[in-house]
UniProtKB/TrEMBL annotation:
Subcellular localization, as worded in the UniProt entry: Cell inner membrane
GO cellular component terms attached to this protein's record: plasma membrane
Gene that this polypeptide is encoded by: yciB
Name of protein: Inner membrane-spanning protein YciB
UniProt xrefs under InterPro entries: YciB
Pfam family membership, one: IspA
Primary site of residence: membrane
Function comment: Plays a role in cell envelope biogenesis, maintenance of cell envelope integrity and membrane homeostasis.
Amino acid sequence: MMKERPVAEPKKISPALKLGLELGPILVFFAAYLLLKDNIYTIGGRDYEGFILVTAGFIPLMLASTFALWRLTGKLSKMQVMTAVLIVIFGGLSVWLNDDRFFKMKPTLIYLLFGGALGLGLLRGESWLQIVMEEAVPLTHEGWMILTRRLCYFFLALAVLNEVIWRTQSTDTWVYFKTFGLSAAVFLFFITQGKVFQDHGIEEAEGDES
């Protein structure tokens, strides 16, 4: 009889290195934008604003960072893969058509897809967030459903907010919002969910039963 090969466990890397690979490209994009935003560059007889040039550099940088994460950890989340794909598509369209609107719409689509996926799972009585985060955050089924419902609404709200910002504000404002505002919003969301983790943590639930 053939023996089944054991499933390879994800490799562990330094949290600082992981954070650097995830946030590094975004911070480089921000710094490059501040440096080049007021310039016009002529390439192949066509004029490009600094934002478009920075976007063109961000695409391979993000792909290289994602590839490095995969090589170091042995896996990528569906969210990381989808984000990389959308960056290539919408960033590529912005560069190709010399139109920054496509890249600015990318966060809207990302949050709509994530919020929609979580909502679809909820309609089926399932928490698809649990599949992604169960190992890191052990919760009861009820806890996962509460957290998933809130995160679904939160993602949809971020999609709307991104649309409002890029359509009504300057590029400078949108870049600051994209670099710092969205990251801070996600961080604050999970910080404010402490009561869910406290009330529905599996260890506490087991302790109540004993």
